[in-house]
Amino acid sequence: MASSRVVALLAAGAVMLAACGAEVSVTAERAEPISFDPTVTSPDPRPGVGTTPPNGSATDPNAPSTPTTAPAPTASVPTDPLAINFGPDKPPRAYDDFLLRVVTDLEVWWAEQLPAVYGIEFTPLEGDIYAAYPGRPDDLPGCGAPTTTYQEVQEYVAFYCGVGDFLVYDDGDNGLLAELARDYGAGTIGTVLAHEYGHAIQLRIGTLDRALATILTEQQADCFAGAWTGRAARGEASTLRYSDGDVRAGLIAMTKVSDPLGIDQFVPGGHGSGFDRVGAFQVGYAEGPARCAEILDDPLPLVPNQFVNDNEYVSGGNAAFGYAEDELLGFLPLDLNRYWDEELATTIPRLGPLKLVAAQSVDEVACTDLRGDLARGVALCVPTGEVVINEPAALELYRSFGDFSVGYLLGLAWSEAVQESLGSELTGEPRSLANDCLTGGWVQTVIRGPRGLPQPRVPERLSAVSAGDLDEAIQTVLLLADLGTDDDVVGSAFEKIAALRTGVIDGTDACLAQL
After folding, report:
1. Residue 497 region by backbone torsions, left for phi larger than 0, else alpha for psi between -120 and 50, else beta
2. Would 424 disulfide with which of 164, 220, 442, 515, CB 3.0-4.6 Å?
3. pLDDT per residue over 291-305, tens digit each?
4. Apex CA 126: angle with CA 125 and CA 131, to 5°?
5. Measured distance CA(147)–CA(120) in Å, rounded
6. Are the CB atoms for 372 and 416 separated by under 8 Å?
7. Cα angle at 81 between 227 and 111, to 5 degrees?
8. Can you say whether residue 474 is alpha, beta or left, with left for phi > 0 and alpha for psi between -120 and 50 degrees?
């Protein structure tokens, strides 16, 4: 986030669609993980626009250690271990059985859904689902070439090839998928396989024969992955059940394979920002595969993901952490006050301007009604009309994720003041989710050049937001949200991101209607 002179963006990962020849249909993913480690104390250097960064690492101390699966399936459910071609002498992985259950149920599910949604019969993959790992003695099939090397698989993480109708994923101990499974749970790999299997479904329904932008086919595959995840979370899958941690892992997986900062989603190979990909995943989760079938002709709104000038590129898109007029904590409070003054112009009482004050620790703040999590960075003192920023905590977030991690928290504080001013009777989790929605409504009015979103209602704004900022907000949500959907404190990551997206897509009026 930035003043009118600086736009804040955040690079996510790198994703591309690669064609291995004119007659070959290949969909592949490669990505740089986003760090979720709040202990990082230095700004993240940003690579050049359009480059493919090397794989990094990701750490989350709150991640579930293992996925939750249902009891062993009954004999009527196919569990042939050849559902995945592990090859000879594969090093065992803790998640092998989990992935077998995933691909088994994907086949069962699509055998039901293809006739129901598209009116055609399902045909299983002609080829196999291959686990690739260093030293595998038998050759992996090639896509436009005689064979595929492990190094190629490691670069692309996972891919589906229409010629041969097969899927390959990286099963190496040092690969990105194994790293994600260690850090966040095997649900991350389950989401990747569900996404790639979605491309196999696209071959069957003719999607890959249409001259479509890559972003549209990727959004549909993300939607398919979300729809299957919803099935697993509701206990409808034949071989397993997803826990809250597995669903959260699916959201994280979407952020790991998003476009790098500076890429237009509509260039060949574009997959969308983390915000775009999570959005398609959530639409599928909530509305099912029939809605996913409509995405190609009724696309979801997409937020911009490009630099608009050289200064943004040089700065990595982050405004300076400071209180001057052109620094983050200088212009953001002014813009939030201006926006809500305009938005609530007809209400009585009106929301007066809030003042940002800095503290160096929670202990030095004396307030009889403090709303928010000051230990994490920002809270509202209702009696004084002050938004208190815990400067060391906020600076840590800024250095870990980017400037809109702080901007998102400031938005929540102003949103809480809005609810207080309007006499909102919401409490607990519903009130927290309403704050997420209201923050998204504010964000909608300062997005530059969105695709498919309304134009801002309030001119002469002091801030500008891009999809990189929204990816930063998602990272912050994943850090601060309830771990389970039944915790009911501030909302799970899925619930909070969905509420934020409602504001961004549908605007402030949709949020005010909830109060």
Report:
1. alpha
2. 515
3. 999 999 999 998 878
4. 70
5. 32
6. yes
7. 35
8. alpha
Other Cβ atoms within 10 Å of 377 Cβ, number: 27
Q: pLDDT by residue (tens digit) across 180-224?
A: 999 999 999 999 999 999 999 999 999 999 999 999 999 999 999
pLDDT digits (tens, 9 = 90+) for 277-336: 999 999 999 999 999 999 999 999 988 787 776 777 777 778 899 999 989 999 999 999
CA distance 401 to 193: 27
Task: Tell me how far the alpha carbon of residue 440 is from its chain's centroid.
Answer: 15
Q: Please give the pLDDT value at position 337.
A: 95
Cα end-to-end span (Å), the chain: 27
Strand partners, 8: 465
Classify residue 345 as exposed, middle or buried by CB count within 10 Å of its CB (0-12, 13-18, 19+): exposed
pLDDT in the model for residue 267:
85
Query: Which helix (H) or strand (E) segment is 434 a member of?
Result: helix 428-444
CA 53 to chain centre: 19
Q: List, in order, residues 6 or more apart from 316 with CB less than 8 Å away.
A: 9, 11, 43, 44, 45, 46, 261
Other beta carbons within 10 Å of 487: 13
Q: List, in sequence order, every residue forming a beta bridge with 123; answer none if it has no partner.
A: none
- CA dist., res. 380 & res. 372, Å (int): 6
Q: Which amino acid is at 292?
A: C
Burial of 455 (0-12, 13-18, 19+ CB in 10 A): exposed
**SS3 of 171, please?**
coil
φ, ψ of residue 388 to 5 degrees: the values are: -95, 130
Whether the Cβ atoms of residue 459 and residue 4 lie closer than 8 Å to each other: no
